[in-house]
Design a protein that fits this description.
Helix content: 25-40%
Shape: globular
CATH class: Alpha Beta
Number of strands: 7
Largest sheet: 5 strands, mixed
């Protein structure tokens, strides 16, 4: 696992739905509905470093004014999963996955994969391409699909990038990197080891963790 760079800020991963319960989760890597064809997460949860999480909540509020909400497909991703993705992806498709020798922004808790849902129906809306589709349809400049699909893709981008907190990855309409991702280290901790805030304040827990 890469460990260079730094100094880094302490990790402060928070669970997105605990900050905003109107953010929907569709964690594909906790199911077989993904390009791997099997679940690689044991839990359908989503975490980001707190500043990134708070910026995502702000984007969700902006979208509500337009009748939409955010669907999160993935956020913090353990490094070992990134290594798995790299190993099974053909070389000509590796622009869609991160090199584990460098680590993914997801591994830092500073990247999020998102789509939109309609507030009236609660259902996810269509984009020009599918989530995790490794084709030209995933590009933010793809001109195919319907006008409505492209408009929703562009609305998502506008809401996410409006205050400068996030920047889209050009090859993937769903992938957004938090601006300060270099401030955080690559991590490989499982979701089950990320304690909720209430538990992390229990007396003596810091001493227990320090002794691990």
């Amino acid at each position: 696992m890469p460990s260079g760079g730094g100094p880094f800020k302490p990790s402060a991963l928070v669970e997105l739905v605990k900050l905003d319960s109107t953010i929907k989760l569709d964690i594909r890597y906790a199911t077989a509905n993904n390009f791997v064809g099997k679940a690689v997460y044991s839990e359908a949860r989503a975490f980001l470093q707190r500043p990134a999480a708070e910026a995502l909540v702000s984007a969700n509020l902006r979208l509500k004014e337009r009748g939409y909400g955010l669907v999160v497909y993935d956020a913090y991703r353990p490094w070992s999963v990134t290594k798995l993705f790299w190993g099974i992806t053909p070389p000509d498709k590796r622009m869609f996955v991160a090199d584990p020798s460098i680590g993914s922004v997801h591994n830092r808790g500073c990247a999020v994969d998102v789509g939109l849902y309609d507030l009236r129906t609660g259902l996810a809306v269509e984009m020009p391409g599918l989530y995790d589709e490794m084709t030209e349809r995933s590009s933010v400049t793809y001109t195919g699909g319907t006008a409505e699909q492209r408009a929703r893709r562009d609305l998502l981008r506008k809401a996410m990038e409006q205050d400068g907190s996030f920047l889209v990855y050009p090859q993937e309409w769903w992938h957004y990197d938090f601006k300060d991702f270099r401030d955080y280290a690559v991590q490989d901790i499982p979701f089950s080891a990320i304690l909720p805030p209430a538990e992390s304040r229990k007396p003596g827990l810091d001493q227990i963790q320090a002794g691990k």
